[in-house]
Structure formats: C-alpha cells, structure tokens
Amino acid sequence: MISVNDFKTGLTVEVEGDIFTVIDFQHVKPGKGAAFVRSKLKNLRNGNTVERTFRAGESIGRAQIENRAVQYLYNSGNEYSFMDNETFDQFTLEKKQLEWEINFLKENMTVNITSYQGEILGIQMPNNVDLKVVETEPGIKGNTAQGATKNATVETGLTLQVPLFINEGDVLLIDTREGKYVSRA
C-alpha cells in the first residue's frame, strides 16, 4: 500500500482492480474543507487516461510492474511473436495491443515487455530506431528557401515527413515516441 501523498510521475498503482501509471498529480489544500490529491492516471491495460481525486492520506495498492528484454521474431496476420531473451519462451501479442509500436517493429529487434503478475500489458520501444526508406519522391533542388519536407515511407510501412535531401535506400533515425524524423543513421 502507498499513500496518495507519495504520488510521483511514473508510479504504477492498482485502483479498483485496474493497473494505472501516474501521469500527473496535484496536491490541493483548499481554504475550507479537507486536502485532496487530483491526479491523471493512464490505464496500462487499455491505454485510457482518467482523472481521479483522492482524499489526502488515502492508501491505494502499489503495482509491481516487471520489465524484461524480449526479441521480436515475426508476425502472422494479427499476431506478433516474441521470444524471452532469458528463458527462450515464445509468446504472441495481438495487433490491437501494439497499434503504435507496429510502426517501428523490425524482425530480430530487442524491445522491453511490460507485465503485471504474469499478464502482459504491452511493450516499450527504444526511444529511437533505424529504419530504411523504401519510397519517397525525389527532392527538387531550389524548391524552397529552408525547412521544406516531403513524405517518405519506411520499411515498416510508416509514412512520415523528412527533409528534401532524403532518398530511397537511406537509413533514418526515427523517434518512436512521436514518430518523427531525427536524422540520418
């Protein structure tokens, strides 16, 4: 059990049978009445964000989240197969659990799996990944003064904005949190 007074961003808690991570919190001490903690929590099972208010000093359960390294093997239809790097056990996750991460997954890539009491909640991608450009329009020199971009599709199917000097076959460093171009790899 943990007191809501000890909330920190990134803390994982169990509230009414669901697992949440604390995104934001604020201690409020009104002039009249009891103090309370207003918080914004993200459900780790379905990704929904909720706002909850707790009485100051209220205790809630702390969720012990386990992270371990796994290797992405392949996908077959709507199922994505992974292998635990320590035990070599293989398991699959459904496409709906990996909607954003699919944009960056390459075969044999190592990612972290997040689980709670044996239940797999999702995967954590590295902050940046290297992906090869498979399709883009040629950049036309002198098109603009500065900062011009064009669309490019990378090997995983993600389409993003890149500078005009990027060509097909280039390997790019892409930020997995926002899906944006960082630099050439």
Automatic annotation (TrEMBL):
Key words of the record: Cytoplasm, Elongation factor, Protein biosynthesis
Gene Ontology molecular function: any one: translation elongation factor activity
GO terms of biological process kind: peptide biosynthetic process
InterPro entries, per the entry: Elong-fact-P_C, NA-bd_OB-fold, Rib_uL2_dom2, Transl_elong_fac_P/YeiP, Transl_elong_KOW-like, Transl_elong_P/YeiP_cen, Transl_elong_P/YeiP_CS, Transl_elongation_fac_P
Classification via Pfam families: EFP, EFP_N, Elong-fact-P_C
Entry's localization field: Cytoplasm
Family statement drawn from the similarity comment of this UniProt entry: Belongs to the elongation factor P family.
Function: Involved in peptide bond synthesis. Stimulates efficient translation and peptide-bond synthesis on native or reconstituted 70S ribosomes in vitro. Probably functions indirectly by altering the affinity of the ribosome for aminoacyl-tRNA, thus increasing their reactivity as acceptors for peptidyl transferase.
Annotated NCBIfam families: efp (TIGR00038), PRK00529.1 (NF001810)
UniProt protein name: Elongation factor P
Taxonomic classification: Bacteria, Bacillati, Bacillota, Bacilli, Bacillales
